[in-house]
Amino acid sequence: MTLVAGIDAGTQSVKLLVYDTGRRHVVAAASAALALIERDDGTREQQADWWTTAIADCFAQIGPDIRQRIRALGVSGQQHGFVPVDAAGAVVAPVKLWCDTSTQAECDAIMAAVGGEAACIAAAGNPILAGYTASKLAWTRTHRPDAWRAMRTVLLPHDYLNFWLTGERFMEAGDASGTGWLDVRTRRWSPELLAAIDPERDLTLCLPPLLDADASVPIRAATAESLGLSPDVRVSVGGGDNMMAAIGTGNVVPGRLTMSLGTSGTLFAHAAQPVVDDAARWAAFCASADGWLPLICTMNCTVATETIGRLLGLSTAAREALLADTSPGADGLLLLPFFNGERTPNLPAGRGCLHGMTPSNMTPAHLVRAAMEGATCSLRSGFDAFLDAGLRFDTLLLTGGGSRSAAWRQMAADMLDLPVSVPTQPEGAAFGAALQALWALQRHAGDRAPLVDLVDAHVQLDESAAAQPDAASVDAYRTHYRAFVRHLDAIAPLYRA
Asked: Which CATH architecture fits 3-241?
């Protein structure tokens, strides 16, 4: 039976799974934790060799017989990070990550140089946000001039891992659309935005070619040997973690909506045409497959629930049990969960705000519910934006750590008034990378079957975790969500001043 591997290089850890395509189950899995460089100015960085060391550690945890049977692998990576690489292939500076908010001034300068946010959206489909890669280049140019001069190639985290695996420098449109300088409508680089980043340097010379989503590249012999893999392994183009999660959850055709409840919360859909919003309520990304991936991302999802859990000294199980003691709306207690700042809405200087406190609702149970509801309301705002764009959905696919909570699954069904399904494979990004690798392997062999056929054959749903909307709770959450929006509208100017 054919084995394929998926690597998910996230912010907190690297995860590896090996999937048996014949028996349709995961035969091995491993993980390795990652450190994070944090500073009070919003800096969030990692060293690129931490990732490669972690990947090697993961493969070392897998039996040699399994490693030798792997025929293809794909890489999912945290989006937006900037890996500056010199001519010899060395990384010349720490990697600034998606969650780095120290570059807000550079965002403003880039958009001003282009002609403002509207002009930026017209040029590429998205504004330049602090999370995107563009501002990290401009910041490096100013603050790390030696690294900027030495840089010859711009890579994103998963691109760098592909380079490490294959020796080849390339990108693909899905992850590249999160840079800020790819015109998502045409899948071509925007000369206006590149010039705004550095008007003195032709940055197109630093951008590797864009490969098709079904392409694959042979693994480098030395890397294969070091990892205990066959030299015949092919490496697919991979993609950003959200793009790979779309594949791994089965979201590759219109009508399916995926909500990921992780450190950050994401909500994304598949579209056959570019879906660009002049108001920039969502990220107008390309998919790492055919089509596009409009996406809402919040910076505070399980961050909110875990922050309240730490405050109260409650485990995950204890918090889950407490939810039964409260009803939808938490008796008027409302949390705006912007503990890390926020990008949807775009409030990088935002902070968490608790409203509606009374003697009766200031209990651990109400605080736990308010945190979960606040994180879900933030994602609901993205859902409304998608509906405004004409997108329609018949199912909500739930993934991420929060999807293990029965209460959260029911809350999502009620908040969005959609039936909830949960894929059996919890590591959606790593699984998606493995499925893309299988697709690319089949294409290399001449099989032209569409991706949706492969995905529907391999993505399985956990029927025991399904949830249906409850009519009374749907009505209660409509009222609660309107209150959430009113409070958000009231406090947003305080953090934009």
From this structure: 2-Layer Sandwich (3.30)
